[in-house]
Amino acid sequence: MAGAAELDRARADLAAAFRWVARLGMNEAVANHFSLAVDDRGRRFLINPGQVHFELIRASDLLLLDADDDAVMQRPDAPDPTAWALHGTIHRRLPHARCAMHVHSVNATALGCLADPVLPPIDQNAAMFWNRVAVDVDYGGLAFEAEAERVCALLADPAKKVLVMGNHGVMVVGDGVADTLNRLIYFERACEVYLRALSTGRPLRILPDAVAEKTAREAEAYPGGGAPLLASIHRILIREGSDYRD
């Protein structure tokens, strides 16, 4: 289990991510959830409380749950049942998924509504995800236990850190808040560019497979990863006097 200082930092990082995603308009009403493992096994995790808008979430609001505690839904501050089912299953089954961010962002969700929900490498951002996205085309309703187990099975390959949840939304996982948030933002932008290109009705110029793979590997090895983005988000929120760290 993380020490007190590490846990405080984890809470602040996750709260900052909620505030930033709300600013980008990628959340939906008071739904959607982010979670972050805070122990070595990945079973203890932070998650946002149910029915609270991302723009209001503070570090102290985040729930600390145990993925193996079946009594969690009897707590007075129990999370949303779909949040517990989906994120609890992820942290129980997928130790490599330290952080999980699920949203119904417009562009990623629109991609998942296409008959062919595969993102082709039409630009640099899209190429970063070449062969690194899992696709679910068997939506079966709200993400309660059975649906959550099926969805998590699609993320079992550690190389697949994005799941396009067909007719639903997107799930992005990663090593931590910075890594996962960065991936979520880039994937949403890649989907936006693809959809705009489709809207022209003109033929797409798709990158060769070898170039797409090379680009994806270069992006994975790029210095800094998502850390500079998260650091900048903290600086902006602090400068604005945000209460996200409270």
Write up what this structure looks like.
This protein has 246 residues and is α+β, with helices and mostly antiparallel strands. The chain contains 8 helices and 7 strands; from the N terminus they run H-E-E-E-H-E-H-H-E-H-E-E-H-H-H. It has a single domain, classed as Class II aldolase/adducin N-terminal domain (L-fuculose-1-phosphate Aldolase, 3-Layer(aba) Sandwich). Strands 3-2-1-4-7-6-5 form a 7-stranded mixed β-sheet, sandwiched between helices. The mean pLDDT is 95.
Blueprint (SSEs and pairs):
Layout (H helix, E strand, L loop, with lengths): L3 H20 L9 E5 L6 E4 L15 E4 L14 H13 L5 E5 L2 H7 L11 H4 L5 E4 L8 H9 L8 E4 L3 E6 L2 H23 L9 H12 L6 H13 L7
Parallel strand pairs: 5-6
Antiparallel strand pairs: 1-2, 1-4, 2-3, 4-7, 6-7
Helix pairs in contact: 1-6, 1-8, 2-5, 3-6, 6-8
CATH topology: L-fuculose-1-phosphate Aldolase
Gross morphology: globular
Instruction: Indicate the CATH class.
Output: Alpha Beta
Q: Based on the structure given, which CATH architecture is correct?
A: 3-Layer(aba) Sandwich
Specify the number of helices: 8
DSSP helix fraction? 40-55%
CATH-defined superfamily: Class II aldolase/adducin N-terminal domain
Number of domains: 1
Total number of beta strands: 7
Evaluate the radius of gyration: 18 Å
Largest beta sheet: strand ordering:
3-2-1-4-7-6-5
> H/E element string?
HEEEHEHHEHEEHHH
Low-confidence stretches: none
Specify the biggest β-sheet. 7 strands, mixed
- By secondary-structure content and strand pairing, the structural class works out as alpha+beta
